[in-house]
Automatic annotation (TrEMBL):
Residues 10-49 form the FecR N-terminal domain. The chain crosses the membrane at residues 82-103. This is FecR domain-containing protein. PANTHER family: PERIPLASMIC SIGNAL SENSOR AND SIGMA FACTOR ACTIVATOR FECR-RELATED, PROTEIN FECR. It comes from Rhizomicrobium electricum.
Length: 322
């Protein structure tokens, strides 16, 4: 029999508190099994853990919610007591109310990655943001909306459903609105804003426009140039997967020229790949570690019978001598 939403929340709260205490190897195996048993479990657990993190960081929260939580005999309050101080259901409900209160008072939070770094961030509502290399986002949650501003770079968002609070990402003058979906937004120098929709549906519009938003479904790419209309085109699933390889610290090329591959690697490392113009249009296919340009160059040399020379912060690829 399928568990109710309340039961799932109770189970998630229990696991969050237990993990806070520390799991035995057997408990960790049971937790992983529970996560995989129902697609609702991951989102519920993320919400519970997000609440715990914010409870830990906040001051004076016991005073604000003492009328909601079951009474306890000892103090001070701790993360685990929130979930074990009486009914788990009551504790989780109280935490949910507290989470809404935090949204109302939320300050803008900034998250960033350095060159070659990928970072995953659990947001207050259970959504997850994953930042690609050299990327920055600003996050502000209120009781009316979940607002994200992409300051630079690229980010993937796995959005927790909440129809009452729209999830909106702003990149320059483009707004991307989503409810319960997975998509990336990229804003790179000398390129238009691009949105890849992995799952679900998003709506795009200009911040100052009155026209109806453009709806874009899964396996599609939306392009928003600063001087032209937003347009959407379907994208092959295999290409979508390649474009998202950075999630796992990889760059995936399919008949990519060496010149283009070198340019892509410049986003991930300060080690410069210099390609001889005579071979710049040679193409390469494969998956490579995103922050290892030397490893890529050596692999490309082996695959294409080229010579590679490493000199400090520079790696050269050129034809072999006759």
């Amino acid at each position: 029999m399928s568990s109710t939403s309340q039961q799932v929340d109770e189970q998630a709260a229990k696991w969050a508190a237990l993990r806070d205490l520390g799991l035995t190897p057997q408990q960790e195996a049971e937790f992983q099994h529970w996560l995989k048993a129902d697609k609702r479990h991951l989102g519920a657990y993320a919400r519970a853990e997000g609440v715990l993190i914010r409870v830990e960081r906040s001051h004076g929260w016991a005073r604000d919610i003492s009328s909601i939580l079951p009474p306890v005999k000892t103090s001070p309050w701790t993360r685990r007591r929130l979930f074990f101080g009486g009914s788990l259901a009551a504790g989780f409900a109280a935490a949910g109310v507290f989470g809404v209160a935090l949204w109302k008072k939320s300050r803008r939070q900034i998250y960033a990655t350095g060159k070659g770094e990928v970072r995953e961030i659990l947001l207050a509502d259970g959504s997850v943001a994953k930042l690609n290399t050299a990327s920055t986002i600003e996050v502000q949650y209120t009781d009316d909306a979940r607002m994200i501003r992409l300051v630079a770079g690229e980010a993937l968002f796995d959005v927790a459903k909440n129809k009452a609070r729209p999830f909106v990402v702003r990149a320059n003058d483009t707004l991307v609105r989503a409810v319960g979906t997975s998509f990336t937004v990229s804003m790179l120098p000398r390129n238009p804003v691009r949105v890849l929709v992995k799952e679900g549906v998003v709506e795009l519009k200009r911040a100052d426009a009155t026209a109806a938003p453009l709806r874009v479904g899964a396996n599609s790419q939306a392009i928003a140039p600063h001087d032209g209309p937003i347009r959407a085109v379907p994208i092959d699933r295999s290409k979508l997967v390649r474009n998202l390889a950075w999630e796992y610290g990889r760059l995936a090329f399919d008949d990519q020229t060496l010149e283009a591959a070198a340019s892509e690697y410049a986003r991930y490392s300060d080690i410069r790949i210099v390609v001889d113009p005579a071979i710049a249009n040679k193409t390469i296919t494969g998956s490579f570690v995103s922050n290892d340009p030397i490893g890529f160059a050596r692999n490309a040399g082996a695959l294409l019978d080229l010579q590679v020379e490493v000199n400090g912060r520079e790696v050269k690829i050129f034809r072999r001598s006759p």
